Amino acid sequence: MPQICLYLQLHQPYRLGDFDLFDIGSEISYFDAADKHNAKIFKKVARKSYLPMLRLLLQLSKASPSFKLALSASGIFLEQAMAFEPKIIKILKLLAKSQQVEFLAETYYHSLSSLYSEKEFEEQVAKHSKVIKKLFGVSPIVFRNTELIYSNDIAKLVEKLGFTGVLTEAVPRYLKSRPRTKIYKSSTKASLPLLLKHAQLSDDIAFRFSDPNWSDYPISASKYFTWLNKYHEDAIINLFMDFETFGEHQWKDTGIFDFFKKLVKKISKSKTSCFKTPSELFNSILTSDGQVEAMVERVYDVPEPISWADVDRDLTAWLDNDLQQDSISKLYELEDQILKSKDQKLLEDWRKLQCSDHFYYMCTKWAADGDVHAYFSPYDSPLEAYRKYSIVLADLAGRLKNHPEKEA
Amino acid sequence: MVGWEYPPHNSGGLGVACDGLSKALSDAGNQIYFALPYQHSKSLAHLEFIACHDPKWLEFTKAPFPSYATKKNAQRVDFLPLAQIEQKVAEYANMISKKSKKYEKKYDLIHAHDWMSFPAAQKMKNQTGKPMLAHVHSTEFDRIPRGSGSNFIKRAEYQGMQAADLIVAVSHYTKQVLIDKYDVDADKIKVVHNGIEPLKQSSVELIHFAASRPLLVFMGRLTAQKGAKYFVDLAAAVLEDLPDALFVLAGNGDQYQSLLFKAAGNQLSASVLFSGFLRGREKEILLSRADIFVMPSVSEPFGLVAAEAAQRAVPVIISKNSGVAELLSDAIQVDFWNIDEMKAQILKVINNKKYSQSIVKKQNQNLKNISWENTAKRLRDLYKDVLSR
Predict the structure, then answer these.
(1) How far apart are CA A364 and CA B389, in angstroms?
(2) CB within 8 A of B352, min separation 6: which ones?
(3) What is the rounded distance in angstroms from the CA atom of residue B112 to the CA atom of residue A362?
(4) Reduced DSSP (H G I as helix, E B as strand, rest coil) percent helix, strand, coil of chain B, to 5
(5) In the structure, what pLDDT confidence band is assigned to residue B75 with cuts at 50, 70 and 90?
(6) Given an 8 Å threshold on Cβ–Cβ distance, is B282 in contact with A321?
(7) DSSP line for A278-346
(8) How far does the CA of residue B343 sit from the closest CA of chain A (Å)?
(9) Model confidence over A369-387: pLDDT tens digits?
(10) A21, A396, A398 ranked by CB distance to B275: nearest
């Protein structure tokens, strides 16, 4: 029977506030002024998605002991949840207690540090694991990078940190004609096991669920269940999506909650399929001495970074144009000085500015993906996103220059 | 007077100039009727507006109309399609002949400002036989460098100048453009420089932002005419020697997007900043804070903003191709393309306080000769001359 691996991502960025040219040198916070704005958005999404979906997950986990899933929550999501909607943390704790939810590791700031600074990447992953352990009592053992960004080089970094496996995207240019329903392994020395997202079945829920132009619209839980059951019994179907799919991207009135509830019940009762968490799946391929099975034919060789975003499944959502590339280069150029300053406030601001969303807002690809970017952006245009960000960069550089550590 | 825009509905220098010179003329005893293609929201003491709009032109009653202007708020630049401007200019001419009839006995001459008003002024001249002054604040050759501008506009400018009894150019620089590009008889053109409002004690609380860093400012439309891209090139050059300097471009325009990409492409994202269009308090703060003001215009009939910067004791670097250079003769004058020279001057001003102070001091002397009173005096002489013919 096919094994269903469900993973939902929880994340909200700290959007920039109204910091403008004339605030340079003023010590006004880049984000504090926006707390109102960030809080408003967070509470709205909590009302529409986080709270009802978390309650549903809790209810389903109680009703069906075989229901399992993985959650990953960025550190800055958890911070905002604690500040703006602590009920979220409470329910997450209950879910953690149920042992039916596996928490994954990621970078605390939902950053692209895996591409720019190994040291910073390690710091952020460690900081994230620490907060997960503190809140939920378990240390994550499976890793997912920001936006499922993955490459051979990133696998090396993750391997070093001792994780048992990684979640990423199945990209045909590297997977070729091999099935995405198997466990793969990285093209690195220690062979890190990998789970690859089933984009079609994931996006049927995440993107197409309420699209009246979709030939399969509307889908019922029964119909979707028959699609799952077409797979062979050792197939692994990785359904990876944003948590906000439930209630935010797909509103309540589309019937998304009801669909999910029925689907979970069907799978739980079924003799032909079951839920598995990532670490359960990774354990299943370990030999008796704890090594990863040979799986020679299943090396996932990814020389250039991939992701789960946009049509291209590459980095172009964040790092395509000059606006994005120079903004992020300028930010990481400050790393040494930031660390030397030993100034917590500077470090914290620098890290919040690493959040991938800032660069996503600057994306100027105007094909089908443009709509998705515009939907998520707080700015009127990618140009405005860049304009505001560069003013903040100028200020950050100025604060470093004036820092007393430097003079000492 | 036949105009196109008037503050607060102005989109650029034209409205400001019309305001300055009509106030000064009124102070000198002239009665001014000021025609506009829309209903002005206020009545003013120094002139009487003649609203030449048809109630049917609903969208047209929202001033300012993009003549060569940009929308004030957004980063987007919404020019009216040229065909639409052409149509409005023609409609204005039709309306003005009806609306100005009752003033016919009250005025002595017709003073028209730039090409949008010329067809209307020509119509009045034909109807009344009164003399017409064509006042050229800017030409299509300035706005669209290399002569690829609208032929319709160039023709309107040419015909207006031909029909006029006298042409007023805002600078010797513009006079030469009219001679070279429009083949106008030099004797028919008189130069009358714009003035400037005296600097009032500012009620604005000035913010000395980015206090420890050299701040270089460009303020103007982000267009080929204003040479904004040379300012970005200049930034790249200066930052090699002054890595802490900040460069601010204040304004909007059709080059906004390409300038953002140029800045990022040259790895200047943390040093070249864009403020958008500024007015009032923010404009005051930025001009006052500037360590150097740079106006690298490719072609600038006047360039009032450089004089405004000079008023605020800011050393000014101006393009030789500018009218204001004739008045601010002690400001630093450069070829707009000469990045090396501009860079050398900037380093000298920033590193040498004495040099900086001496420029400011000399600029202050220059400023004494720039006033709307002088402008009005000169215009009144020309009025007398035309009326005595």
Answers:
(1) 62
(2) none
(3) 45
(4) 45, 15, 40
(5) very low
(6) no
(7) HHHHHHHTB-TTSPBP--GGGEE--SS-B-S-TTTTSSHHHHSSHHHHHHHHHHHHTHHHHHHHT-HHH
(8) 21
(9) 666 767 778 888 899 999 9
(10) A21
pLDDT at residue B77, rounded to an integer: 30
Q: Which residue has the tokens 């470093």?
A: A400
User: Above 90 in pLDDT, residue B80?
Assistant: no
Instruction: Compute the nearest-CA separation of A402 from chain B (Å).
Output: 8
Among chain A, residues having any CB pair with chain B shorter than 8 Å are: 20-26, 321-323, 325-327, 329-330, 380-381, 383-384, 386-387, 389-391, 393-398, 401-402
Q: What is the pLDDT of residues A193-252, one digit of tens each?
A: 999 999 999 999 999 999 999 999 999 999 999 999 999 988 999 999 999 999 999 999
Residues of B with CB under 8 A from a CB of A: 74-76, 207, 209-213, 244, 246, 248, 256-257, 260-261, 263-265, 267-276, 282, 285-286
Q: How far from A60 is each of A209, A243, B24, B69, B239, CA to CA, in Å?
A: 21, 16, 81, 61, 60
How many Cβ atoms from other residues are within 10 Å of residue B34's Cβ?
21
Contact, B33 vs B107, CB < 8 A? yes
What whole-number distance in Å separates Cα of residue A165 and Cα of residue A159? 8
Asked whether the beta carbons of residue A383 and residue B75 sit closer than 8 angstroms, the reply is yes
- The interface predicted TM-score of the complex, written ipTM, equals 0.91
- Distance separating alpha carbons of residues A228 and B93, to the nearest angstrom: 73
Query: Is there a contact between A383 and B260 if contact means CB atoms under 8 Å apart?
Result: yes
pLDDT > 50? residue B299? yes
pLDDT band at B42 (very low <50, low <70, confident <90, very high): confident
- On average, the pLDDT of chain A sits at 93
Q: Which residues of B touch A380 (CB under 8 A)?
A: 74-75
CB within 8 Å: A383 and B248: no
What's the token pair of residue B267? 């790895």
Contact B265 A330 (CB under 8 A): no
Cβ neighbours of A23 in B, within 8 Å: 209
Compute CA distances A245 → A222, A252, B6, whole Å: 20, 10, 52
Angle between the N-to-C axes of helices A199-206 and A221-229, in degrees from 0 to 180, rounded to the nearest 10: 170
Nearest CA-CA partner of B384 in B197, B96, B60, B166: B166
Annotated active-site positions of A, please?
147
CB distance B210–A24 less than 8 Å? yes
If you measure CA to CA, which chain A residue comes closest to B213? A398
Residue from B61, B70, B85, B56 nearest B10 by CA: B70
| Contact (Cβ atoms closer than 8 angstroms) between residue A94 and residue A137 | no
Q: Which of A92, A11, A4 is nearest to A357 (CA)?
A: A11
- C-beta of residue B276 within 8 angstroms of C-beta of residue B250: yes
Give the tokens for residue B277: 């269009």
